[in-house]
Amino acid sequence: MRALLSIFIVAILIIADLRFNSLDGTRSVLNNLAAPIYWLADTPTRIFAWSDTNIRSRSELLEDNDKLRTKNLLLSGRSQQIAALMAENTRLRALLNSTALLRNDVLVAELIGVSPDPVRHQMILNKGVVDGVYVGQALIDEEGLLGQVVEVSEMSSRVLLITDATHAIPVQVNRNGVRAIAEGTGALGFLEVHHVAATTDIEEGDLLVSSGLGGRFPVGYPVAVVSKVVRDPGRAFTLVEASPVAALDRSRHVLLIFAEPQNRTP
């Protein structure tokens, strides 16, 4: 009986609320009291969503950082290669511009190897018989004379530098035409000019160029600059040292000079 009475009372209250909104105040109070309960009940869901978002963001940031680091490394490598290519292009331009002063045909060759023996100043070029290279052919870089070809194969050639201890080249002082012989010393930094009389007009700073005597080297190519002159009154000859003008230890591209056939030595 009590249960039926309770149901009847609840039904009346519901009908009264629907008809007259008589429970608005009560409902508002109950909602205010239940709000903290709802907030606490939803806390685990919000914590999970926050942690998932932050963990995912950190993972994405780490992944992005790895990608950016890799990309930066690649760009750095490419920029270094571009810098090297620009420097090589500058050297090639200087080398090719020097042909304006040449009276002979030339061939651009690239250094592909050097002698492993530190006493022998030799290098290997990527041009050979098929390119018309011949023994005795002179070669230069953008600054001056490097040496001569001493051995030729089909696809490559071996060059003896002017600083090799077995090499000698006839030169003359560009200022006054005085002739001499510049010989290699086995050191890349200097040559020795032998048999210069004590009264010879030669001074530090004089430019030595190839004289063309002997027919091995074309005339007029820069060879070295006189760096030291020592005159001893007790000796008949003057000690003269000179520094090569060519970049013997840095040149990568060179010019092989094709002299006139009558000037070639066998």
Describe the biggest sheet? 6 strands, antiparallel, barrel
Distance between the termini: 138 Å
Number of strands: 12
What is the fold-level CATH name, i.e. the topology of the largest domain? Answer: Thrombin, subunit H
The secondary structure category is alpha+beta
Number of domains: 2
Strand order in the largest sheet: 1-2-5-4-3-12
The low-pLDDT segments are: none
Helix content: 25-40%
Q: What's the CATH class label of the largest domain?
A: Mainly Beta
Name the average pLDDT.
77
CATH H-level superfamily of the largest domain? Rod shape-determining protein MreC, domain 1
CATH architecture tag of the largest domain:
Beta Barrel
Beta-strand percentage range = 25-35%
**Whole-number radius of gyration?**
44 Å
In short:
Helix content is 35%, strand content 29%. It has helices spanning 2-20, 24-97; strands at 105-114, 122-125, 138-140, 145-152, 157-161, 168-173, 179-184, 191-197, 207-210, 222-230, 237-244, 253-258.
Plain-language structure description:
35% of the residues lie in helices and 29% in strands. By secondary structure, the chain is of the alpha+beta class. It has 2 domains: 101 residues; 162 residues, Thrombin, subunit H, CATH 2.40.10.340.
What are the salient characteristics of this protein?
266 residues, alpha+beta, Thrombin, subunit H, 2 domains, 6-stranded antiparallel β-barrel, 6-stranded antiparallel barrel, 2 helices, 12 strands, 29% strand, elongated
